[in-house]
Amino acid sequence: MTDASPWRRVLLKCSGEALMGEGAFGIDFAALDRIAGDIAEVRGLGVDVAVVVGGGNLFRGVRTAAKGMDRASADQMGMLATVMNGLALADALERRGAPAVAMSAIPMPTVCAAYTRRDAAAALAAGSVVISTAGTGNPFFTTDTAAALRAAELGCDLLAKGTQVDGVYSADPKTDPSATRFDRLSHDEVIARDLKVMDIAAIALTRENRIPVMVFDLHEAGGFAAALTGRGRSTTITD
Ligand code: UDP
């Protein structure tokens, strides 16, 4: 907790898609800079920020495996995609004067630091934004599960999942006008209603470790700080 925020240490899950901006593939540098600005704003509130970045804007293992490629190899490519996004995000943060370090769960010492819990915790305590890339380092997982894992091991008191909409809805609000937004849900309700928030492994990990999940709109400039400080719309999943 800080004077400005009820949260002391937050794990932001930033999907690869968010980095595409209005595009259909790759990194949109205006979107990247805006998201870096939003992260720096939250860091400026005195909140420790760790980020797990996805890779869906560049590569998705499961889709490629469906075309015949070995799933484990395709997932390794997906994890490498998240490293590219993480390097771009760390660079965008550093360019605006916010200390940031990208760490990879797949060691590649000539590119960035290898992720270790100890180094990540030390960097967070020193005020750096820690960007955890390469997911869990293992195929058959997602970056949502990596986000839940990093939130648990780094002692985060919130997993903030940035999405395309301002919370969790009863149906997809983009296709179903009768969809309603939940203000609050329990982890069990998310699982029982099969709400598409995160995959089951990720939700189960946050439930087991009693980590609340806040789903908010990452496309809204300033939305991250607004959600954390209770000014913006979001859904909170907690027990
Ligand atoms: N991935 C993986 N293990 C992990 C995390 C990710 O194999 O622990 C791979 C997987 O192929 C996935 C890709 O990396 O499709 C990109 O991650 P994700 O789809 O979660 O990214 P997002 O949807 O958040 O952009």
Keywords:
EC 2.7.4.22, single chain, 8 helices, ATP-binding, 9-stranded mixed beta sheet, two-stranded antiparallel ribbon, alpha/beta, binds uridine-5'-diphosphate, ATP binding, UMP kinase activity, Carbamate kinase, globular, 239 residues, 11 strands, 37% helix
Outline the secondary-structure elements.
Elements: E1 9-14, H1 29-44, E2 48-53, H2 61-66, H3 71-95, E3 100-104, E4 113-114, H4 117-125, E5 129-133, H5 143-153, E6 158-163, E7 168-169, E8 181-182, E9 184-185, H6 187-192, H7 200-208, E10 213-217, H8 223-228, E11 234-237
Bound molecules: uridine-5'-diphosphate.
Residues 15-17, 54-56, 60-62, 75, 78-79, 81-82, 135-136, 138-139, 141-143, 146 line the site of uridine-5'-diphosphate.
Pathway: Pyrimidine metabolism; CTP biosynthesis via de novo pathway; UDP from UMP (UMPK route): step 1/1
Main location: cytoplasm
Subunit structure: Homohexamer.
Any overview of this molecule?
- The chain has 239 residues and is of the alpha/beta class.
- The protein has a single domain, classed as 3-Layer(aba) Sandwich (Carbamate kinase).
- It has a nine-stranded mixed beta sheet with strand order 4-3-5-2-1-6-10-11-9, sandwiched between helices.
- The longest helix has 25 residues.
- It is globular and about 50 Å long.
- 46% of the residues are buried.
- The model has no long low-confidence stretch (mean pLDDT 96).
- The protein binds uridine-5'-diphosphate.
- Uridine-5'-diphosphate binds next to helix 2, helix 3 and helix 5.
- The site of uridine-5'-diphosphate (UDP) has 22 residues, from helix 2, helix 3 and helix 5.
